[in-house]
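Final report, Chapter 2: Outcomes

The project's central promise was a pipeline that accepts a single protein chain and returns its three-dimensional structure in a standardized token representation, suitable for archiving and comparison. That pipeline is now operational. To close this chapter, we reproduce one record exactly as it appears in the project archive, with the input sequence first and the structure output second.
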Amino acid sequence: MNLDTLVSFMTGGQATLMARVGVLLVPLYRGCFVVGAASQSVLTLLAQGPVPLDRIVAELCPDGDGEEGLEAWLDFGVHLGEFERGPGGYSLRGMLSRRLADARSDAVAALLEEVVTLHARLLLQTPALVRQGRRFTLDDQDGRLIARSSRMLEPFVFEAVDAAVPTAGPLRLLEIGCGSGTYIRRAVERNPALTALGVELQPAVAEAARANLRAWGVDANVTIDAADIRALTPDASFDLATLHNNIYYFPITARVELLKHVRGFLRAGGGLLLTTGCRGGSLLMEALNLWSATTEGCGSLPTPEELTGQLRAAGFTDVTARRLIPGESYYSFTAQRAASS
């Protein structure tokens, strides 16, 4: 590069801009790379490392085709500092990769995958979809991935479930949108006399919940149906209804009628527990709000004041809201069907 070119580059503002863009590249590449490595079980494989290239090739492309590209991809991970390559092959180096290789970090790995695959699409494609008069659909997300990443919230929802479910005595639970089934599991383990019906809109998620509950050994008194709760006829036989992380799957204008419908499944004096993110939280919460506001059939996250008002408008009494995560806009809402209603 001659002096004139260098001066032009440095004084034209491009060098400063490129430096700012460069700061973004490493975390962007790192997030995408680690998600690819985790989703294809490469992190699990290399946790046993060092692993020779030929073994990695045999695991990922058994027909032998693609070795050149796979080696280039692995070496990209070395350049990022997530992998290292030695005489014995490849192994994990970066703290992020080593932590995510642990099965106990599955919810965090799923959340990162959700950010890289779904949230990135929301940010990239929303202006174009709005211009075209279109919206995202539920098919644009991986329901099983969302169920996995939602488990990040488990400790806080467990606390709310424990407060709502007594430890003894018969209790009929209706869970609307059961996700992985983990909150039904918590309720059953807390009260062995409890029986539960989970109603899940997405069939693949419902089947995954059934499999989980079987694996956990708590399926004897639990039924999971793949259905839209709005299509079911209320029978006023449940003691408790729960909605966890899904009120935004319903349009704002439909929520009062939905809550009235749910109220119809409760016996007189029965209770409601609803947990949800609300507007005004972290970037992750704002990404959730962006998704719900741009997806067909869904609606923006509520504010606590808005949702308490909707619960009262639906005929519930004793409505309360409680922040579950300090510093985050994530709440539990409890309410009752009046004994005389």
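Archive annotation: Strands lie at 83-86, 89-92, 171-176, 194-200, 222-226, 238-244, 266-277, 317-323, 330-336.
This record, like all others produced under the grant, will remain available to the consortium after the project formally closes.
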